[in-house]
Amino acid sequence: MVIMEQKKLIVLFLLSLLIFAFCKSGGQGNSGTFNEKTESVNPSSEKKEENITNKEEITIGMKSEDLLAGIKDKNGDVRANAISTSVKSQDPNILQTLIISLKDEYWKVRLAAVKALSEFRNDKAINPLIDVLKDENSEVRIEAARSLGLKRNIKAVEPLLETLQNDKDSDVRCAVLKSLGEIKNIKTVEPLIATLNDDSQCVRSSAIWALGEIKDLKAIEPLINQLRVVDYNSRKDVIQALHKIGTSAIQLLILALKDEDWKVQQGSVEVLGKIGDIQAVKSLMDISKDEDWKVRAAAAEALGEIQDTRATGLLISMLKDEQGNVRFHSARALDYLEDPRANKPLMECLEKEDFAVIAGACRFFIQVGKKNSEKVLIEALNRYFENEISSYFYNSGNKKLEKAASTMAKKYGLSLGIILDFNPYRWGYKR
Q1: What is the pLDDT averaged over residues 190-206?
Q2: CA separation (Å) from 219 to 190, 241, 403?
Q3: CA 280 to chain centre
Q4: Does 296 map to a domain?
Q5: What's this model's pTM, rounded to 2 decimal places?
Q6: Residue 40 to residues 46, 168, 228, 404: CA-CA distances in angstroms?
Q7: C-alpha torsion 250→253→254→257, nearest 10
Q8: Domain limits for position 413
């Protein structure tokens, strides 16, 4: 009897726990639906709570049939939220509903539908997304263009080009250009080249990026010509685009070294250095004698990137250039080349306290680790501060250099990383 009574008490205790959990969850049953909340609400806000807050919450984790119901809700925000939760679904029933939602009267619903369709692997969404390029709302058009780029379907090329030509919104045109760059169809090259003269900087930069992605030879000369007119940021975009085109651009870039505009010369030099092909070495050595110091400095930097020892003698002579920036990049190039012929000239610059050379070839001087040279090296760091130089100082194993690097990094709000792998640039690790 005692055992039976104990069992009854245990059963009653478990039942009470289940009832408590049921009440605590708001009455959620196994069917996946929710009962009405038991908490009291303000009658004036009851409708708003019911139509928006609660329904937005319950769309999370819905099954397909529940999502379809949410998408058909009378409240536009609820419809948009329901669509957003359908992104990971590949249900064909939802696909058709999303396509229909592209014509919803509420722009946020159309926007959500476009985003959701971009995730569908089914190509049935291509034509409906193309139609949305003419939507009255610019945000929806931008997202449609972006989605078509993600799908990389050639069917979208002509409609995107039409939008590029006719849409007045520069942000839409930027999105179109990015998508054309993703699709990479050579038929788009000439229209993209024409866009390089657009009034919008965003459009010009996007066109430059797209041409770099497509890598068609017809784009090389127009991109080089852009070096004459673009601002600093766009100039970096042009150099990056030509770098992506790569070795196919070398001959035209070498010809551009003879251009009368120093901006074209300097930009072409930088690209040749980034491409890193030895074909350019002789031409870069020739232009390193240019009367414009900015071109000479760029040539020295490029020769350092290519790392061909044919340039060693020339770079040693450039350690005597009147411009500090030229000496800095010449020294850095020699540091990269690691040609023993440069050791004595570099040490002479240390004795003369040429801070430009010392900063440029900091790795070399750290490896030499000359006694009592820390003061001169730290002064070079102060005058020619770069995060890269600070990083070498910080990882040199020399306490004085490490402290100086930490001080400078703190001054400029930068962080210095520790080199975890084998670091040959340690104090006194001679070459």
Answers
A1: 95
A2: 8, 10, 49
A3: 29
A4: yes
A5: 0.77
A6: 10, 52, 70, 65
A7: -160
A8: 361-431
